[in-house]
Amino acid sequence: MKQWWKQPYVDRLKWILDHYEIFGFSAAEGMTVIMTEYLNSCGIPITPQLLMQKTGLSREELDQALSVLCAKKYLELKAGRSAVTFCLDGLYSARTPLSPKALEQSLFDLFEEEFGRPLSSSELASLQEWTSRYDNAVLVRALKEASMYQKLNFAYIQRILSEWQKKGLIGPEDKGGNG
Fold first, then answer.
1. pTM, whole model, 2 decimals?
2. 3-state class (DSSP) for residue 179
3. What is the pLDDT of residues 95-117, one digit of tens each?
4. Buried/exposed code over 125-163 (b: 16+ C-beta within 10 A; e: otherwise)
């Protein structure tokens, strides 16, 4: 049986847009994914030059986006005889650590589930402090990023949050913001 995302009635581009916030894409990554899916659906062979032209990204920005998407296993570049194919099956498959239900689940349960163990008292205290400062969606995105890089520890998640703050992606008190 075909995977659900390969069924003829599935609008994959719409699915990506419906679930966009779950993936925590940067602007360059998101545009790369959307354009890749669009070009694949039209049967247009993809080249880095075409992606740069269509997305307006520089070579460096595109290379960075492709690296991250491959590292997260959302994108697979497959070398063929005459061309490289850009396969987004990882985006749709069960490889994504957090499901769309993640935002509805208790944040504490979600962290314990992702860590695969009960949280320590110091971890619970850190998480409690973060929930007073950040919107749950921000914390879910940070957990998802740490999980994708297999760095499930609170120090790494704190570095992610600090880095996002430095880059202006979130405010120091992003509670209830656009998180």
1. 0.53
2. coil
3. 444 444 444 457 777 888 888 88
4. ebbeebeebbbbbbbbbbbbbbbbeeebebeebeebbee
